[in-house]
Each structure stands twice: as C-alpha cells, then as structure tokens.
Amino acid sequence: MRAALRDQFLLFYTGQKRSASDILGAGQAEEAVHRLKQLAVETCAALEADDLDRVARLMHEHWDAKRRRAPGTVTPEMEALRDRALTAGAGGVISLGAGGGGFLLVYSPDPERTRAALGMADLVFGLDEAGCTALM
Q: Residue 24's domain spans which residues?
C-alpha cells in the first residue's frame, strides 16, 4: 500500500489562486458538508483495508459533494483537468482544501499516462507517520 500511495497518487497545482473564505463564504450546503465528513471516514477505512478501487469510487463522490458544497469550488479549468485525467485512466480526482483552484490529488494506476494527459508536472510529496510536529 505504501508504494501505491507514493507512486500512484499524484499532486498537481492547478495554477489557480483563490480565497478560501470567498469560496466557502458563498454557501455551505449542510448536507454536502456532512457528506464530505462521512467520505473522509469511509476513505480512511478503504485505505486501511488496502482497497484502492473503493478509494477511487469515494474520490468521485467527494468531487460531487464538494461541487454541491458551494458555488465556485470546482472551476471549469479544474473540471477540464479532471476529465483529462479520467480519460487517461485515472481512477479518481479530488480537489484539496476549499476548492476554486489550488491542488488536485489524482489516483492513477498509470501515472505516466496521467502526467502526459495533463501536460504538467506533479509535485513530489511524502508520507509522514509522525503526525503534526512543531518546527520551533
């Protein structure tokens, strides 16, 4: 599972900046927020069970719930990137944070094909088991 998390999950910067307070201040459909919380719990369980197919399905639900949460959480540019990734074989795509730009996390069994389809470099990230630590 560690290898899959490291190698098959790709992080892309959309190049779009946004104000999280502007995005989230526009509305917060309570049921969408509740569903996002449920999806986080379900995703954690799927990861612990090494079930990446389930993680991919949950990523689709996450995208839809985020879109329902508030106007502007998913931009046309983000939709286009998602469509290109899915067409290239990605299993799932989610936006991180408030949405409206920022970062996309992509699960792809074929990372090279996904990178080529998006035409952009992904950001290197690692896994940390220590949790939050103070850097002071």
A: 2-118
